[in-house]
Amino acid sequence: MGDNPPRSTNAIAGGPGVTGRHARAAGTGVPSSGSQEPSFGGGGALPRKARFSMETGFRSLSRAAGAMVLVIIVAIAVFLISKAVPALSADTENFLTFKQWFPNDAQPRFGIAALAFGTVLSSVIALIVAVPIALGIALFLSHYAPRQLATPLGFVIDLLAAVPSVVFGLWGRDVFLGPVRDFSVWLNKYFSWIPLFGGDGPFGRSILLGSLVLAIMVLPIITSLSREVFQQTPGMNEEAALALGATKWEMIRTAVWPYGKPGVIAAVMLGLGRALGETIALALTLGTVFTISFNIIQNGGNSIAANIANTFGEANATGRGALIASGLVLFAITLVVNMAARAIIYRRREFRDSAA
Amino acid sequence: MSLLDRQAQGVVMTPDHIRTRRLPIAVNIAVAVVALGLSVAVVLGTGIGNWVLVVVVAGILYLLGLFAAATRVEGRRAARDRTWKALIYAACVLAILPLASVVWTLVSKGVSRLDANFFGTSMNNIGARDPNGGAYHAIIGTLEQVGIATLMAVPLGVLGAIYLVEYGRGKFALTVRFFVDVMTGIPSIVAGLFILAFWVLIVSPWFNDGQPRFSGFAASLALTVLMLPTIVRSTEEMLRLVPSPLREGAYALGVPQWKTIVRVVLPTALPGIVTGIMLAVARAAGETAPVLLVAGGAAAINFDPFAGNQSSLALFVYQQAGDASRYAPARAWTAALTLVAIVLILTIAAKLLARRNSLSR
User: Is the separation of the CB atoms in A12 and A41 below 8 Å?
Assistant: First the structure.
């Protein structure tokens, strides 16, 4: 007897005919030869490939489901444009530069300028407040806190990301308004020489309140994304920095930060996208005034999304079209922000599968 | 003579020299006390603010004092390290304060109307002077809308993820993948406007004698648009974690690819997929804006999602928040508490399920 010759060397029959059709690993990127390839070998033992098999059906079904995403994105653009164009042509003012919003009049007059300004201003202030704090918490969770504390705290942060925005809006209006009003009065008393904090009041339902509520809302999102990025820092890099005598902060600055920077930028952009599109929290907290003003503590402020929620109830056909047009602008802005964020993530392949 | 010896020349290698000097904890506390005292004296003495400003000024003074003291004792680099550490801890405390306030307000204000009447009645015929009224209709609406949305989004999302993981190759799959990610960031109000333009204004008149009509189903469609990318993304991640030997084993037994996916890959990844779906459902249940735009909101109970206005819990909160009645805030807070309870139960259940999942990174 002795050695058995490896049977597979001369068993051509079942080899490529079977594996060519099926064998490929999910993530490894072995190119699939596809089902179009005629099955060869196997003689009469293997069944010939049917023209319409379950395989083809399932494959095209899943392909259609994947394509559905593209269809929806295109459909959003198409339908929003189709409803916005009649309203825009009825507009008697310049849509991009006019500041007021009277689309329901006999002579519709409306423009996006004040709304777009308010949207961007409130989101930017929210990010200025939220990003340093979020990065601080993310570093705390990933590098400072003991494990027993970091795990439950991270869990709580994830839970907070799930709290509906209407709850934050309600809290901002009923509870947070008081402290912010006091703070605004104080700012106005001592810093009214800075244009941001000028004005004669009334204070409270201002861009400041809206931005702070927004900041509290995007905080969990930015925190959990950047924590994940920081945790992925190669342990080697950290240990090398420490071994060279770096303090903990120097280690973070030289090993963690350069590695995590693209991920953090992407997290911030995603937070910005969330803040730009936030509707109900701003509808409940902003003062709803159509002006362009850098004063952030006086009653006022408005945003595209909040305006849609506030004025949708009394809108007629043109009014609805006008709101859809403003939504189209919002869609375009968020699309650009999100695509930029995703492009950054995609450049660093390491983050592709983690930063959701 | 080696480099090490040259460097070490003139330094007596005793433990005192090798170990750097540390700032004693007593000095740390002393700096804090002095900062607080100074801050109280300055702020309250000049009368420029209340205790909040005292705390803020004390914090800044403490950081400066700590930096100065640590620089003297430990050197500049260690001092910087200490200051940043203090700042990071401060960021944590600063963030926890408002979040704790949200939770506390939610519970303390929410329990006031937590009774059978709230869960058993609708807002039909409830005027501004009636203290009763409940969210029964809104709960029905939320359950129906989210349920239908889940029924539509789950098959679509799971199939899409299967395409991306098992079949998708080349440029088309990459494009789909990119736009799934981009779609995750679409604001909910834009999804609402899309369904408003598409379903309510264009399609629904066909079924309703030419009149556009709000319905709970339209809200489900909008929620589907919002849930779809989340489900695709989480399912995709889970499918990628299924070990390829499982697939290869099935192929080796002659099982066709579709059957391998349905009978081997999906069951293996099921707990993770369910986790992702539950998170998406939790997010959809909290959405207000799309429901406001396409379901219209209603005061009465409406079991039919395909005809007539419907409300939802989130929309109920928003509408009660805008109501002038003195009884409205209590209803709003109780509804908010109910909504958060539903969302958090779903989220916690999903996370616990994820922990039991045998597939993990």
Answer: yes
Domain borders along chain A are 101-351
Alpha-carbon distance B326 to nearest alpha carbon in chain A (angstroms): 13
Query: What are the CA-CA distances from residue B348 to residues A137, A172, B138, B271 (Å)?
Result: 21, 25, 23, 14
In a domain, B138, yes or no: yes
Burial (CB count <10 Å: 0-12, 13-18, 19+), residue A350: middle
Here the tokens at position B188 are: 């909910």
| B361 in a structural domain | no
**Structural domain that includes position B323:** 118-356
Q: What is the pLDDT of residue A97?
A: 87
Give pLDDT tens digits for B325-352: 888 888 999 999 999 999 989 888 888 8
CATH code for the domain of B141: 1.10.3720.10
Query: A17 CB near a chain B CB, below 8 Å?
Result: no
Q: Is residue B342 part of a domain?
A: yes
ipTM above 0.90, yes or no: no
Q: How far is CA A227 from the centre of its chain?
A: 16
Tokens of B114: 């937590």
DSSP per-residue letters across B144-208: HHHHHHHHHHHHHHHHHHHIIIII--HHHHHHHHHHHHHHHT--HHHHHHHHIIIIIIIIHHHHT
Residues 6+ away with beta carbon under 8 Å from B181: A338, A342, A345, B229, B233
So what's the pLDDT on residue A45? 58
CB pairs A-B closer than 8 Å: 300
Place of tokens 């930015």: A222
Query: A residues 272-291 near B, CB within 8 Å?
Result: 273-274, 276-280, 283-284
> Does domain A101-351 fall into CATH 3.40.5.10?
no
Whether the model pTM is above 0.95: no
